[in-house]
Amino acid sequence: MANLEARTSSVGAPGGEYQVFLSFRGADTRYGFTDCLYHALVGAGIRVFRDEDELRVGEVIGGELLRAIDDSILYIPVFSQNYATSKWCLREIARIILPIFFDVEPDDVKLKTSLYKDSLLEHEKRFPEEVKARRKALVKVDEIKGWNLKKDEGQGQLIKWVVEEVLDKLKIKHKPVTERLVGLTGLVEDVMKLLDIDSGDVRLIKIHGMGGIGKTTLAKVIFNQLTPQFGKRCSFLEDIREESKKDGLVKLQEKLLSDIVHSRAIEKIPDTDYGMRRTGEILCNKRVLIVLDDIDRGEQIEKLLGKYSLHPGTRIIVTTRDRSVLPIKGFKYTVLPYPMEELNFNHALQLFERHAFGGLSPSDDQHVLARAIVSTTGGLPLALEVIGSLLYQKPKAIWSETLDKLREMPEKEVQRKLKISYDMLDDYQQQIFLDIACFFINEDKTNAIYMWTDCRFFPEGGIDVLISLSPIKILDNNKFWMHDQLRDLGREMVHKESLTDPGERSRLWISKDILEILRTKESKKKVQAFDLDGKASPNLITNEQLERFGSLRFLKLCNTTFVGDFSECLSKIVWFSWHSPPQSFWAVNMHSRNIVVLELSDNHFTDDSEVWSFFKMATKLKVLALKWCFGITRTPDFSKCLMLERLTLERCDNLTEIDCSIGRLKYLIDLNINGCLRLEELPKEIGGLEKLKRFSLTDCYRLKTAKAFEG
C-alpha cells in the first residue's frame, strides 16, 4: 500500500478528484509517448492519475484502482502490443473514453487478430466471467473515436490533439500563456503565499500596475495552477474594461454564471441588477476561483460578485491599472494588494534577447546594442517582446535607427514605442492589423482570411509577419489574440484618421457613433467596416442610409433590421454577419454578388422570407453559417453559390430537410451539422462531395439514416 500512496501522491496537483485516468502497459510506452502525454496533460492544468502496471503490488490495489477510474472524468487507455497481457488493464477498458492505438491496429484490439485474443484466452482460465465482459468491451472499441500512432511516427502533433480533445471534453478554463516567460517564478510564489489556498477564509488579491507590465500573464499562470483544485468552479473574465464598454456587464455576468454552474445553456440576464442577485445566490454556496482581469471601476467588482456573500475558501484575483479601485465600500473580506514592478534589467535583457536573437548567442556589438535598447523600454515585458521581435534578423543599421527613435520617447510612453512595430508593416499588413484590433480579437481566423483574400490583402503572409513581430498571436483554438495595449494602439490609429468626425474613419465599432452617422445625409465613403449592436433597442437601417457607405466591405449587425430596396446597397460587402434581427423585415433585393462570408444567427425567418434572396446572386460565397435559425424547415437552394467551401447548420431546431442542391457544392471542404433536432435523414447527394475534408455531425438525435453513406 505504501507504493500506491507514493505513486498517487506524486501525480497531479493536491486536492480534488482526478480528471483523467491514463492507463498503459510496458516499457515501450512508459519511457516515451505516455511520459510526454502525461506531462502535457498536467502542464495544461489537468489532474491525471497515471496507472503503470509494473508499479502495482498485489491484488488488494484493485479496489483503489477502480475507485480512481470511477472518480476520473475521462479514461485514456494506450493500447500497445502487450496491453492485453495485464488482467488489470483489461478490467479498466469497460470505461474507455479516448483510446490511443500505439503500434497496434484497431483490429488487434477488437480481437480480429491473435495479438490480444491469445492473451485473453490465458486470462479466461482464471477469470472467466470478467474476461467475458472485457471481450465485449474490446469488440466495441471501434465505436469510439481514437488515435492511431506508430512507434516511428512523430508524436508531438498527436499529443497536442489529445490535450485539446481532453480540454474540450472537460471544459477546463485553461488560459494560454507564452512559452517565453521570464522573471515570473518569484512573482507566482509571492501571490500564491498571499492566496494561502489551505486557509478557509475568503481572500481577494489585487494585482496592480501599468499596462503591458504582465499583470494578466501572472494571473493566467496562477489560474492554471489553481484550476485543478477548484475543478469546474472557476472563471476567468478577461479584459473587463473593454468588454464593459462594448456590451456592458450583462454578458460578463452570463459568462461567470455559465462557468461556475458549468451549464451549456447560458442563463439570459435581462439587466445588471438581476445579474447581481443571481451571482450572489450562486457564489454564496460554492467555493470558487474567479479572476477579474483589467478592472477599472470598483462598481464592476460589485456587479460581478453580487452582494459579497462569498463561500469560505473562495479566492478572487483582480488585475487593474488603477490601484484605487479597491477596497470598495461593503466588501467585508480580506483584500491584499500586490504591486507589479517593471522587470529588473537582467530579466528584461533576457526576455528581449530571446525574441531578438531566437536563442542564438549575440555578437559583442549586438549585445551592446541590446543593452542600450533595453535601457529605454522601462522594463515593460510587452515592449521588450514587440521590439525584440521587430529586430529579429534585422541589420545593424535598423537596430541603431530603432535605438535612436526609442531614446527620443519618454520612458513611460508605451504606445509610441509599440507604434515602431506598426510602422514597419506594409499597407496590407496594417489593414489586417487594424481589422483585428477593431473586430477580430478572440475570433476564429478562418473566415477573416477569406475576407482579406478577396480584398487582396494577402493574409497568409501578412498574418505570419504580424505573428513574427508579436502584434498578434494565434491561440490553440485558432482564434486571434492581441494584447490590450496593441488593441488600443490600433483603435487609436483609426481614431486619428479623424479626431472630430467618426464618419471620416475607416472602421466603426461604437454603436453611438454609428447611429449618429446613419442620421446624417452625407456620403461616408471612407468607412470600410462597422459593427452595430442594438442591444438597448432595435435599430432600423434604410436603403438610403446604407447607400452612403460606398466602400463598406464588412457589416456586422445585432438587433437591427432593414427597410427599402437594397439592390444598389450591398455591392461591395464581402462579410455580412447578422445576429438576433427583429422578426419584422421590410427589405427587398437583399443580395450581393461579392459577398464571401455570410453569417445568420438567432432568428425566426421562415422558408419564404425575403432574406433568402441573399443566395440569388451569391456566386462568390465561400462561407455560410446558419445558426439558431428557428423558423426554417428546409435549407435554402445552394445552386447559386457553387463556390461554397464551408457550411454550418447549427441549432436549426425545426430543420427537417437539407436541399439536394448541396450535392452541387463541389468545392465544399467543411460541413458542420450540429443540434438540428428534427432532422431525420441526410440527402444522398452528400456522398458526392469529393473535396469534403471535415464532416461533423453531432446532436441530431432523430437522424435515422444517412443515405449518402449507404452501400
From TrEMBL:
State the UniProt keywords alphabetically. Answer: Leucine-rich repeat, Repeat
Repeat in keyword set = yes
The record ties this protein, via Gene3D superfamilies, to: Helical domain of apoptotic protease-activating factors, P-loop containing nucleotide triphosphate hydrolases, Ribonuclease Inhibitor, Toll/interleukin-1 receptor homology (TIR) domain
Query: In terms of domain of life, where is this protein from?
Result: Eukaryota
Alphabetical list of Pfam families matching this protein: NB-ARC, TIR, WHD_ROQ1
Q: TM spans, by residue?
A: none
* Domain TIR, residue spans: 16-170
- Where does this protein have coiled-coil stretches? none
Record-given protein name: Disease resistance protein L6-like isoform X6
The record lists the organism as Rhodamnia argentea
Q: What is the lineage of its organism?
A: Eukaryota, Viridiplantae, Streptophyta, Embryophyta, Tracheophyta
